[in-house]
Design brief:
Elements: H1 2-28, E1 33-40, E2 51-55, H2 65-68, E3 77-80, H3 91-102, E4 107-109, H4 113-118, H5 120-129, E5 133-134, E6 138-144, E7 147-153, E8 179-182, E9 198-201, E10 210-211, E11 215-216, H6 221-225, E12 229-232, E13 244-247, E14 266-273
Parallel strand pairs: 1-14, 2-3, 3-4, 4-5, 7-8, 8-9, 9-13
Antiparallel strand pairs: 2-14, 6-7, 10-11, 12-13
Helix pairs in contact: 3-5
């Protein structure tokens, strides 16, 4: 009798492990796109209703043209939040991914820490070959119907000791321009006394493995606070009163292609002019 009970328990545990593993593998291979609407008080009228397709931390994964075909023509810009590749990922695969993304809209990208460890020069060349623009501590003007938004790419430091640089200066005539900043690691906010209108970041993978009630199991205190999703601050002394930040869980995976309670994601972000009193 005891043996039978033990065998039943062992069988039950095996089935649970198989189901959990299958779920983790499924979450890691998703091509899910999270839809968001962000209210921005400083957004020019001409940009009201524009959309950004944001993807971060591709690593070694392959994008699917089949899944992303429906987004062609639905985004005004495609922004890559770094870790577009990693060591031992062939540049041909990177090129195929970038060609798929360039069919959605004009591509802008920043380096992530794994890009710098892999082949930054090769990645820069592939971006140029596919029509993308790499932003390294520089601003670019997005224009629409005579109005402008400043897109700023913050460069990833080689080591944590190097620290992040400050935001590149805007021309005197543009100091109050609406500004979107893309940076790989959200730890950059530690170096930003006054945050811009919108920050897009990745790097954390949302912890990749998250337990119910406990959250991410392998993130330090800062990243447990800023792990994934939307964040907002109130800075009454700044020109931008309510800056906002999105940290993506990322599309790819680190070390193993497994996730738990933290599915892979991409983002379609709709920009709306208005007070940031809520996020959808």
């Amino acid at each position: 009798m005891v043996t039978a009970v033990l065998l039943w328990i062992a069988g039950f545990l095996v089935v649970c492990c198989v189901l959990i593993f299958a779920r983790m593998s499924y979450e890691a291979r998703l091509h899910a796109v999270t839809h968001s609407e962000v209210m921005m008080e400083g957004l020019p009228e001409a940009f009201d209703g524009c959309s950004i397709f944001f993807i971060s931390d591709i690593h070694k994964r392959k994008l699917s043209d089949k899944y992303l075909q429906e987004f062609q023509g639905k985004a005004d810009w495609v922004i890559l939040g770094g870790d577009i590749m990693e060591k031992n990922v062939p540049l041909e695969r990177v090129k195929e991914n970038l060609e798929i993304l360039s069919d959605i809209g004009p591509v802008y990208a920043v380096y992530g820490n794994h890009d710098l460890k892999a082949d930054p020069e090769g990645l820069a060349q592939v971006l140029r070959d596919t029509g993308g623009i790499l932003l390294r501590n520089e601003n670019i003007r997005l224009e629409r119907d005579g109005e402008e938004v400043c897109l700023t790419g913050v460069d990833q430091p080689l080591t944590k000791r190097d620290g992040y640089p400050g935001l590149p200066d805007l021309p005197d005539s543009d100091t109050e321009a609406c500004r979107i900043v893309v940076v790989h690691d959200p730890a950059w906010i530690r170096y930003a006394p006054n945050k811009p209108d919108l920050i897009l970041a990745g790097h954390t993978h949302g912890g990749q493995i998250r337990l119910p009630f406990f959250g991410a199991v392998r993130l330090n205190a800062f990243y447990r606070k800023y792990d994934c999703g939307w964040f907002r601050w109130y800075q009454p002394q700044s020109f931008v009163k309510l800056p906002q930040m999105l940290i993506s869980r990322g599309f790819g995976n680190r070390r193993v292609a497994l996730r738990l309670c933290c599915p892979a994601e991409m983002h379609l972000i709709r920009l709306k002019k208005g007070t940031a009193d809520k996020l959808k």
